[in-house]
Amino acid sequence: MSSLTLSKGGNLSLTKADPGLRKALIGLGWDPRTTSGKAFDLDASALLISENGKVRSQADFIFYNQLVAADGSVTHLGDNRTGDGAGDDEQILIDLDLIAADVARVVIAVSIDQGEERGQNFGQVRDAFCRVVNQETEQEVVRYDLSEDAASETSMIFSEIYRHRGEWKFRAIGQGYATGLHGIVTDFGISLH
Predict the structure, then answer these.
(1) Cα dist. 62→70, 113, 140, 150, 187 in Å?
(2) Is the pLDDT of residue 134 over 80?
(3) Which conformational region is residue 30 in: left (phi greater than 0), alpha (psi within -120 to 50 degrees), or beta?
(4) Residue 52 — φ and ψ, nearest 5°?
(5) pLDDT, position 84
(6) In this entry, which stretches build a coiled coil (predicted)?
(7) 72: how many CB neighbours lie within 10 A of its CB?
(8) Distance CA 170, CA 122 (A)
(9) What is the set of domains in the chain, with CATH numbers?
(10) Gap between the Cα atoms of 183 and 178, Å rounded
(11) What's the pLDDT tens digit per position in 156-172?
């Protein structure tokens, strides 16, 4: 089985592309700029979103300080603080069988830690991608290489996995936010103190 590559806005039925997919590994990667300046620290996160477009509770925000969803359906495998090296920089596991019935989608976002304070943005990040791998077979199912110019944006929704008529689907989003991770999570109902 060969992996499919999507463009921004594209979507794919994961259920049809890989009927055996139960445990999805979401691999996220990027290369920071090679010029001088402060180091980049990009952080991946996941949000469990219900039909009303909001999280059910604060526990639905999975990130470096809350690595596992309360029901075990989503697990963040930890923070990579540099983005160095080949392959995935951060990974999130999604057990599709454990996703609660009242969760309509899992939104995958990446933000630049202290991006605004450091004058950093996604326009300075190269070769960003998001891919879905069948954790059990280790086969890549779909990949989305972000190519947008996001020169003013410090966070971005890379993709989402969502339910549609009994299927699990993947959507390549690539929507940037100039308001950092704070802007994304508050849009989905997380209150930050």
Answers:
(1) 10, 16, 23, 24, 15
(2) yes
(3) beta
(4) -80, 5
(5) 63
(6) none
(7) 10
(8) 22
(9) 4-188 (2.60.60.30)
(10) 8
(11) 999 999 999 999 999 99
